[in-house]
Structures are given as C-alpha cells and as structure tokens.
Amino acid sequence: MFLDSFSLLALTLASANAFIFPTPTTTHISGPIQNVDVAKFKIVTSPTIDNSQHQRLAYAMEKYTNIIVSSARVVLAAQAAPIALSPPLTTLTLHIEGNDALENFPSIRTNQSYTLTVENGVAVGTATSQYGLIYALESFTQLIEDTGTLPGTTITIRDAPAYQWRGLMLDAGRRFIPVSTVKNLLDTMAAVKLNVLHLHASDMCRFGVESKKYPNLTASLTGIHAGFYTQKDIADLVNYAANAGIRVVPEFDVPGHSRGIRPLMSNGVQFCRGEDADDNQLYNDPAGKTYGIVRDLLQEMSTLFPDEVFNIGCDETGIVDDCTLNSTFSFERKLFSDIADVFNKTPAGWEEAAFDAGAATSDTIVDAWARHSAAEVIARGWRAIESKDSAFYMTSAVKGGPVGWKAMWYDISTNVPPSNISRLLGGEISMWTDTYCFSDQCGAFGPKHAVPVGAPLFPPSMDEKFGKSIGGMIWPRGYVGAASFWSYDAKVDPSSDAFVSKIWTLNDKLVARGSLVCPTNCTCDQLSACGTPY
User: What are 416-445's pLDDT values in tens digits?
Assistant: First the structure.
C-alpha cells in the first residue's frame, strides 16, 4: 500500500512511542501500525460481566474508553488525512479467568498479572482478577494515546509486578491533603501501577479522621488548622482507590508523633511529662487509661478501612522522663496484639517498632526507612517494606530530570537472600509534609525553630496551590520509584536518553489526563514550578 510522507512520519512516531510504563515483563510488537476506529471503538467483556459484581472493572472500562477516544480525537483532528494502513480496530475484549473475579477490594493477595494481545484486527486482554484487567487497560491506553493508533498489527504483552506492595505514603497528619488532591494523586498512581496508598492520617498537627466516639478530636481543627476526613470522605476515598486497583492502608502514629491526640487529654489521655514536655509521646500510665482510650479509638478507625493491614507507626519514640522503654514496649506490644486478635487485622509499623522498642510481633509488617534496611528486617524474621529515605523520600525538593530522580532507581531486594525474597512485600515512596507546616512541626518544639519553606501554603485557603505543589514534588520523580517496584533492572540507566525520554513522554500524557505534576523539563519545589511561584 502506498504511504504518503505524513503517513510514513506517523508510522515512525508510532514505533518510537511504542512503550508501556513501567516496562512489562515481555513485549512483542510487529507489523505496521494498527488503526483504531475512534467513532466505533468500545471495550467489552466476554462473557458479559455483571456490573454489580464487577463494579471496579465496569468503572475502569468507561474511564479508559473516554481517555482513548478523547486522546485519539485530538491526534486525528491534527492530521491532514487519515492513515489507512490496516483495517481499523473497533473493540478490545476482556476475559477474566480465575477465582479472583469477584474480589470487591484489592488485597495483598490479589493477582495483578495480565496478558494483552492484538492479532488480525482483534484485541484481547486476559487476567485472573478485575485488577489485572485494569492494568491491561492502562497498558493498552498508553500504547494508543500518542498517535490514536496502536504501534503494530501483532502485539503480545505478558506482564506481572515483581512485588505485591508498591506504595505511596501521603502525610496528611501535618498539612491536610484535600480529598480532590488525593483523588488526583490516586489517578496518577494508577497510571504507573502503584497499588497501595499508605495514608499517614495523624501526626504533629492533627488527628485527621473523624471519630464518632471522640468527636472532640477534630472539633478544634479550625482556622489555619482546619482539615480532616469525615468518615464519609474515607469511604469515598477507599472506593475511588479500589476502582483504580489501589488499596488504602491507614496509619495512625502512636505512641510518638501523637500531638494530634492532645484533645483527648480531657478524656484522660496522658503524655510524657518533664522539663521539655511537648505532648508528643503518649504515656502508658499504670492504670491503663491512655491505652484503653487509644485502643478504642483505633479500633473504630480500623472499621473504616477494609484493607487487612493496619499501621500504628511507632516511629521516633524515646525515653522521656516517665516514659520508659519498658512502658513504651508494653503499649506497642499490646496494641500490635490487639490489632491481630481484636481488630482482625495484620499489624504494621516503622522500623523502630522492631529495632528500638522491640515490640513488633511475629506477624507485624515492618517498614524500613532510615537506620535499617528491608534486608535487616527480613533477617530478623519479619516481612518488610523498603522505604529507604535516601532513595524514596520526597520531603525535600530536588532538581528536575535524572539528577533529581536517579536515586529512586534502586533495587529494594539489595542483600535479601533469594530464599527469603517472599518476605519482601515491596517498596514505598514517601511524601512527608513537614516542610509545609506553618511553624516547625506545627509548634511542637517551640518558636525557636525556623519556619519551613512551604509554610505559605499551609492555610486551607491555599488548598488549590498546595495541590499543584505536592503533585509537582511527587511527579515525575515518583514514576521512577514506581518502576523500581514493578520491574527493576540493574542494566537500565535512569540518566540515559532513552529513559529520560520515556519519563517526559509519560509526563506529557498524564498532564493531558489532568494529573498534578511538575511540567516536563522543569524543576519544581514547594513554592514554584519552572521558576514561577504558585
């Protein structure tokens, strides 16, 4: 068939942009580009699914149909003439084959693998769960977004993540993160196949979720301190995340970082006392009053989140006057045990729970972040998540491009023996909001400390600008961490032209979808993007 110069250019561009991010396990693409009939294109299932039983997949089918059709229309509108290289594709058919088809919420056991094929004008996605098919839809969409066509007439993609836990930790216990911003970040997480939102919901500045048992916890969050999630908000976020195949794992940080629980002092909660008392660390009083209230509060919180994992932090606790190591151990150990035996959840906490107080139970998931690695956690017998701060923390701004993101291309299995690799659940990138507090840690350490750089964006009146700021701090750097968790390859150079091009191309796609990200080829910090203040 004769191709004019425009068609040849389009064919070249299609081949150049034939990528999926993160890189699939295996990919084969051959033949000329495959046209898609935008006017007729649809996604169907075979056999036809019951939307009420497969609500996540039904939602995703509509979402990705809209992305494909709208992006293709933009591309086609710019063309001088249609490219007629093959009969147009009109349908993507999805099959669920397995016992996970009716899983209403993704879990730590969810099979996320999928297969995607295109042959003889027929496109098919296959998986054992709706969540695997959601990944198939994302990959298919990425193939088609740039050109409105597929990069070949014969395509075979077989894909599965290296790790079950690929997370983003969001700190809403310092600067509140509005629901709309969280949803935007969830959309971007889904695009790069991150599947755990670790919601750090309490800290120095607030206890950030409504309690029906203790409504005074959030009653004082007014003025510049305003902002918390109602229980209805949590249900909405959990459902929105599940529609994207994302689990929401809550963290309520105790006994340290507990300044947000101060309103419960009127109920009998006690804090460590002494010359430098800052009401930051809970006191495990002999009568058990503090423990009883906190346990009841967290049990209520556990009912709001369907995920099996419940995180209580336990980081950066110390010996503070009447708070001894033994009292801290007792508080944490009892709570870990109650999470398992009473809440019917799997307990989790930061590395201090295992290596400082030593309170982590045998079934506790331990998140390594600073002085210890996932390999060390695993060597001691626990399951681990790697959140290495030098690689995956986003607290500080970095230069845009590979200089800023190369640390995130890190092998989280470093020093983990193959015989113990099943104990490495995965990794997390972490967006702490320390640098957005109106004063250092919301005044926890007095007025003598410097005001953080992002303080102008702390008030709720700055929510819109804060959303742009936090999105720009996370993405595109976070794409690289997501790829590390999905399919790390030591042979890949995150500074190479090919890798850099891939990141910027993905970034442009997600900008078109509405993601809050740092613009391509720019540097962003807390207060500006590309040198322009928010």
Answer: 999 999 999 999 999 999 999 999 999 887
Residue pair 43/58 in contact (Cβ under 8 Å)? The answer is no
Residue 479 has φ and ψ, to the nearest 5°, of: -60, -40
Sheet with 91-100, strands from edge to edge, namely 26-30, 154-159, 114-119, 122-129, 91-100, 42-45
The neighbouring-strand residues paired with 124 are: 93, 117
The CA distance from 534 to 527, in Å, is: 6
Exposure string over 172-205, b if 16+ CB within 10 A, otherwise e? bbbbbbbeebbebbbbbbbbbbbbbbbbbbbbbb
Q: How far apart are CA 212 and CA 344, in angstroms?
A: 21
165-513: in CATH 3.20.20.80 = yes
CA dihedral of residues 519, 524, 527, 533 (deg, nearest 10): -50
Q: Specify the pTM.
A: 0.94
C-alpha span between 168 and 165 (Å, rounded) = 10
- 34-57 burial by CB neighbour count: b if 16+ within 10 A, else e? bbbebeebebebeeebeeeebbbb
Rg, the chain, Cα only = 24
What are the residue boundaries of the structural domains of the chain, listed by start? 5-159, 165-513
In terms of CATH, what superfamily is 5-159?
Answer: Chitobiase/beta-hexosaminidase domain 2-like (3.30.379.10)
